[in-house]
Write a structure and sequence with these properties.
Elements (H helix, E strand, L loop, with lengths): L9 H12 L7 H12 L2 E4 L7 H15 L6 E5 L4 H11 L5 E3 L4 H9 L4 E5 H11 L7 E4 L11 H7 L5 E5 L8 H11 L9 H11 E2 L13 E8 L3 H12 L1 H9 L4 H17 L8 H12 L5 E6 L2 H10 L4 E4 L5 H13 L4 E6 H4 L10 E4 L6 H8 L11 E8 L3 H21 L10 H7 L12 H4 L1
Parallel strand pairs: 1-6, 1-7, 2-4, 2-5, 3-4, 5-6, 8-13, 9-11, 9-12, 10-11, 12-13
């Protein structure tokens, strides 16, 4: 069903929003542009870089749409489970007069939720996957909004199919990383926004579709409206015990690969060696030493009594190891924690006046959290995908903050961390290119990249026969 186009410019939409909604705080000019883009879009992808306020732009645009357009009365926002409460909070903050409820309960309760005459419902991807059209009546919603829309990048998944089948006259998608893996990711999101978009589009056709349906701003585009990020790569030497443990495994790597080649598990063996070396760079359990932990203590000592520090690691074991040795007040945020436990840790970090440290699993804390209270971000180790790291940093570097954000990346001298950093820098540049024109980007390291990290690309390093199998 087509909807009538809205022919208002940004300033007219801004005046109408300020009149109808009484927005409690000033939005930046670029955010009003985003509000106008969504307000006027029947199908729109807001792909702003992390931290630029996609949520608030969506809240204001949706509320304005409901107050001014007679054909928009009910909306559903589909988000990761960990973010559903945050959506309700943001509506209460920015548009308290609009009733918003989070879908809860068992299947029978959820079915009743979908029928309630509530303007805005917030559901999780898991709930939509389970309920689908069996419990969600047709013609229930006038607009469907996908937050972290990369969740539907696999077009063949049940979740993606369930989202595409939700009846609606308008569709919006939000994602700072619409392309994490390859161009089929973007095809799937565009397929949700416009079901007529087919699969396997040519590169020019996909670029053209993306250009017509997407608004993306990077922090560099709005630099004058945001405080700076101060980035520091801190080079660290391993402790003697860590160096001995590291070198022992390093010099046995060829032997391990030779053994794995006979069973055909080379890629798995490469990843296994890299992971073990990365853990040793973090800490040595047998000697209870960690040069990185010593450096972290120095940062905590020097950062002042008002500092609030986020420490990210991809290894939950590392976070627990740090936690057991940290004397300052701190909390953990990991994927194994319940939603209530995570929210408690976040609330303590945001609201407790004492010096706070939050130890965060990269995958648990990289998506959708608002932690602008942080003064420092420490990347204790590096993730395989720079998009995940950037997303983690931008949990703190958000449009609400007033002060610069200090980001410190640990880098252990004369280890695989140096080569990992080189590859990540290259991938980060590729990611910037990708969202402007569709390219490919590996979600993790390829086999060739893992060989490069372990210095298996030099002639003669590998035993006879293994190079060919690689």
């Amino acid at each position: 069903m087509e909807v009538s186009p809205i022919s208002l410019d940004i300033q007219q939409i801004r005046r109408r929003a300020e009149e109808k909604l009484h927005v409690p705080a000033l939005l930046h000019d670029y955010q009003w542009e985003g509000v106008a883009f969504l307000y006027k879009s029947q199908s729109g992808l807001l792909a702003d870089e992390m931290g630029l306020g996609k949520t608030v732009q969506t809240v204001v645009a949706l509320a304005l749409l409901m107050y001014t357009q007679k054909d928009v009365n009910r909306a559903i926002i589909v988000a990761p489970t960990s973010l559903t409460t945050n959506w309700v909070d943001e509506f209460e903050k920015w548009t308290p007069s609009l009733t918003v409820r989070r879908v809860e309960g068992n299947a029978q309760n959820r079915e009743a939720f979908y029928l309630l005459p509530i303007p805005v419902l917030v559901a999780s991807y898991e709930q939509i996957r389970l309920d689908g059209l069996d419990r969600i009546p047709s013609n229930t919603f006038d607009i469907v909004i996908l937050d972290e829309a990369q969740r539907v990048k696999n077009r063949a998944s049940t979740t993606s199919l369930a989202c595409r089948l939700l009846p609606r006259t308008r569709a919006w998608a939000l994602s700072a990383t619409p392309l994490e893996n390859n161009e089929s990711d973007t095809e799937s999101i565009l397929g949700f926004l416009n079901p007529s978009v087919g699969q396997f589009l040519s590169r020019p056709a996909l670029d053209e579709k993306l250009k017509s349906m997407m608004l993306r701003r990077k922090k560099s585009d709005v630099r004058g409206e945001l405080p700076p990020v101060i980035l520091q790569d801190l080079r660290i030497d391993l402790s003697l015990q860590q160096r001995n443990k590291y070198d022992d495994l390093w010099f046995r790597r060829t032997e391990i690969i030779r053994y794995s080649a006979s069973s055909g598990n080379i890629a798995s063996a490469l990843l296994g060696i890299i992971t073990r070396l990365k853990v040793i760079c973090n800490f040595d359990k047998s000697s209870d030493t960690s040069s990185k932990c010593d450096a972290l203590v120095d940062i905590l000592d020097q950062s002042g009594s008002s500092a609030r520090i986020l420490v990210f690691s991809q290894f939950v074991e590392t976070l627990h190891w740090i936690s057991e040795r940290m004397e300052l007040p701190h909390n953990l945020l990991t994927g194994s924690m319940s939603l209530a436990e995570r929210q408690k840790s976040i609330n303590i970090f945001k609201n407790n006046p004492a010096p706070r440290v939050l130890l965060v699993s990269l995958r648990a804390g990289g998506v959708g959290l608002n932690l602008e209270e942080a003064t420092h971000v420490v990347l204790f180790d590096r993730w395989w995908n720079p998009a995940v790291e950037i997303q983690a940093i931008f949990r703190a570097h958000r449009f609400q903050r007033k002060e610069p954000l200090h980001v410190i990346r640990f880098l252990v001298f004369d280890t695989i961390e140096e080569r990992i950093a080189e590859i990540l820098d290259q991938k980060e540049q590729l990611f910037d290119d990708v969202v402007e024109s569709v390219e490919t980007m590996s979600r993790s390291f390829s086999q060739q990249e893992m060989m490069r990290i372990l210095q298996f690309t030099e002639k003669g390093v590998l035993p006879t026969g293994v190079e060919k199998s690689l």
